[in-house]
Amino acid sequence: MTQVSRCAIRQADFKGWNAYHLENGLIRLVAVPEIGGRIMAYDLGEYAYLFVDRDLAGQLFSAEENQGDGSLAAWKNYGGDKTWPAPQGWDDDTQWHGPPDPVLDTGRYSLTELTGDDVYANIGMTSPPDHRTGVQIVRRASLRAGSTRVTLDLTFHNIKDRPICWSIWDVVQLRAERIGTDGRLTHEPGCVMTTPLNPDSQFESGYHVMFGEPDNPQWQTPDDSGLFFAPYMWHIGKVGLDSDAGWVAFSNTAEGYGFAKMFTYEAGQPYPDNGSSVEIWTIGAGQVANLNYADSDIYLMEAEVLSPLREIAPHGKTSFQIEWGACRCDGAILAVQPAGVCTAQPTLTASDDGWHLRGGFGVFDEADLLLRGVSADGQTGATLSLGAVSPLRAVTIDRQIGELSDVATVILLTRAHHDGTERQLATLPVPTSS
User: Fold this and answer.
1) For residue 230, what are the β-bridge partners?
2) Residue 253 included in any domain
3) Which of 165, 177, 308, 324 has the most beta carbons within 10 angstroms of its beta carbon?
4) Where are the beta strands (DSSP E) in 56-149?
5) pLDDT class for 432, splitting at 50, 70, 90?
6) Is 322 found in the same domain as 361?
7) What average pLDDT does this structure show over 3-30?
C-alpha cells in the first residue's frame, strides 16, 4: 500500500484565538471552541475555503455583548462553519430566535474530545445548555490520513423534561473574494454553487426564494441540466430547495478548487422552511433587517444543509451526519459521487482502436484511478489502472482504453491508498452499435 502522510493534532493560535489544528498533509481543519464551537479553517494545501471576518479575528465577547440589542447588526458573524436549530423565526418558541444567540451561536463551547494517532484525528465541542430551545449541541469533526474528507457528527441533546422538535441546521460560509484590478478586495465571479433539483419538487421552479429579489439573476436552472446553479454576482439573497440527492457543492473556478457537502436525504420526512433540505445564501449589496452590506468587504456564499424535523424525547438526543470533501478541479461541479466530483461529463465514444474515454473530475483521496467493466448480467470483468490521482490535482481523462468485449457498463472508481477502499467516481453505459 502506498505511503500516506500522517495525521497530527496541535493546539496553536489561529488569528488571535486559542485553536486546535487537525492536519494530515492534505488538509488543515482549525476549530475554535470559544466562538460557538466553530470550525474556522478548512484548507486544501494553501487554499482556504472558509470565510473569516477580519474585523472580528481574535476577539471574544461577553454574552451580553454577543446578544446586543438582539438585532442582526449586533451579531458577531465570525465566519467558518457552525450548527443552529431550525426553523428560524421570531413568532413563537417553536422557532429559533437567532442570530444573534449568545449560547448556541457564539457561546463558549467546551472541548470534550481531542483524540488521534497517525491515521485519524477527532475533535468534539459541546455547547452550554440553552434553556430557551432546550438544546445542547455536540459538534464532532473527524479526519483520516490520505483524504480530504471530514465527517461532522452533529447531535442535539434535549435538556428539558418534555419533548422538543428541531431540525439540525449546519451552515458553512465559503470565501468568495479576490483582489480587483484597483488593488481592493471584491467578489469573485468565478465562484459558483450547485445542487441537484428534485425532479418531483414541490416548488414550481425547483426552489423557492426565501429572501431577496425574486428574479435574482444568480438563481439559475439551465434546461436539461437537472441542477440549480448560483454563480456569485454579489447580489444578496437566499433560496431553499427540496433537493433529494444529498449534496451541495461550491467551486472557485478562477482558482480551480472545489468543495462538496454531503448528507443523507430522508424521503417522506418533514423538513423545515417549506420542505428545504438545502439552502444557499449569498452576501451582496443590500439591506437585511438593520444591516447593510453595500459598503462591506464581506464576500461569501453559504452552503446550508438541514436534517428533517425530529421530535426529541425528554433528555433524549438526535444526530445528523455530514461529510465534506475538497479537491482541485476545473470548472463548476456537475455531480458528486463517493470518490469525488465531476466537472466535465464523462463520455465513451467508439474509435478505430476501440473506445475513447473523456471526462473531468476531482477526487477526495490519494488513490489509484481504475476502470472496471461489467457485463449485461452483472459479471465484473477486467480492471484497468489509469494511474495515481490526488486531491491536489484536477483529473482530466482523454485516452484510448482499447476494446470492451462483453462489457455493458464501465465504472470509473478510486482505490484509496490509505485503506484500500474502492469508491465510485462515474458509471457509463457502453454505447451499442446501431
Assistant:
1) 193
2) yes
3) 324
4) 81-86, 110-116, 120-126, 135-144
5) confident
6) no
7) 96
